[in-house]
Amino acid sequence: MSAAPSLNAEHLDVVIVGAGLSGIGAAYRLQTEHPGRSYAILEARDSLGGTWDLFRYPGIRSDSDMFTLGYPFKPWRDAKSIADGPSILRYITETAAENGIDRHIRFGTKVIAAEWDSTRSHWTLTLEHKTAEGVAHSSLTANFLYACSGYYDYDRGHAPEFPGLEDFAGQVVHPQFWPENLDYAGKKVVVIGSGATAVTLVPAMAADAELVTMLQRSPTWISAVPGRDKLADRIRETLPPKLAHRVIRTKNILFNVGFYQYCRRRPEAARKMLLGLTTRILKDRELVAEHFTPDYDPWDQRLCAVPDADFFKAMRKGRAQVVTDHIETFVPEGIRLKSGRVLEADVVITATGLQLLAFGGITLTVDGAPVRLSDQFVWQGTMLTGVPNFAVCIGYTNASWTLRADLTSRLVCRVLRYMDRNGYSAVVPQPDRDLAQRPLLELASGYIQRSIGEFPRQGDRQPWTVRQNYLLDSATTMRRGLSRTLRPVRAAKTLQRV
């Protein structure tokens, strides 16, 4: 898959964007299945780990078990199934070091633009580097571009405008930009929000704060899960590490897919089950009815998992509380609610969600024409119509991100083999007939709904849908024929709209 590089620019076979969980996994698959290809991982930040290095707030953890969030090729050996952020970062770092992937990472290198030239069958990447003197730019060329930067904006969180915020006498913090030495010991803390970040922060801060209040506009589905998988422990005691990891991973995949399908097909039964579990823990039906009974069905939005019921235990100990109300305005002593109640606060944490950003914000151009992402469709959750030799890594919203991410990286490797076998220097997916548009991600969560219109679409049939079912995807992704939808790009052509 060679192509003539541009003059005076370094040329690589493959460029991977992002050195997080996905990017390190992609590099492992690429160098294992295509050892002769040159590649680099371009990472905008100064360290690897992505999400697990960026977020430093108290209690940061995964809400997926590490036997499925971890890589299939590297057994998870720690005791806890639901792991904290530092443990996950250590796992990613070990994977990169053990496989020599860390030598391919170029830190402080942000891809700001990518221009495809069909006459040369390669990408020209415009790179931005932070230097002591300011910002410098450079370029390199690559045959294939693989975006593993997720879909979050690492530079900006969602920050709604709060009336009267300038009058507040205390400190306001966004979890994405956590101060290194924030002192909240013995203080009153209000956490605005009710998603995964909020339910993680509350019990973690409650250990030292005077009182932590989670202020929510409406309830979210929250479920207690074991922090340690006892069955997994027994399996690891019995079987060799790699086999044990495979068995536990399969067990957890089957359970997670089964539970998701149960929630979607029998929402009333799922509601009753989840509410019953919460009531048994809190032992207060009125409290559950007021603060923990959402008006949407389970998995219309991502379900928040709390290991060992730590969130609920903090409430039972009197160190935390939940208030369901709307903010009227900030006042010097805290937050006045529309009910008239004032929540006193020394520290306010705005866990108001993340901002989506498609593929790291890279500006894509194909043969001189800007790519409008919302006009394009995603093939097998991996490649885009109209954009040759370009793949994206999009994880599951209802299961561990890595399950789909690893499938995607294996598919990219398969596409590269297909190109080699047929002598193609470039390919692009193309449907055989018109597709009906559907949003790429179909969760009702606010952070998705705010920005999903700027992303590519999924279609109304396979292989143009982005399924949320690992069992089906694992059975079909690597077996479906590529020749039906991947078309060779032999000459310069303008961006096609589907």
Automatic annotation (TrEMBL):
* Cofactor(s) needed for function: FAD
Q: Transmembrane segments in this chain: where? A: none
Q: Which SUPFAM superfamilies match?
A: FAD/NAD(P)-binding domain
Give the protein family.
Belongs to the FAD-binding monooxygenase family.
Q: Which residues form the signal peptide?
A: none
Q: Domain of life, per the record?
A: Bacteria
Q: Which UniProt keywords apply?
A: FAD, Flavoprotein, Monooxygenase, Oxidoreductase
The molecule here is called NAD(P)/FAD-dependent oxidoreductase
From which source organism is this entry? Nocardia acididurans
Please name the InterPro entries in this protein's record.
FAD-binding_MO, FAD/NAD-bd_sf, Flavin_mOase-like
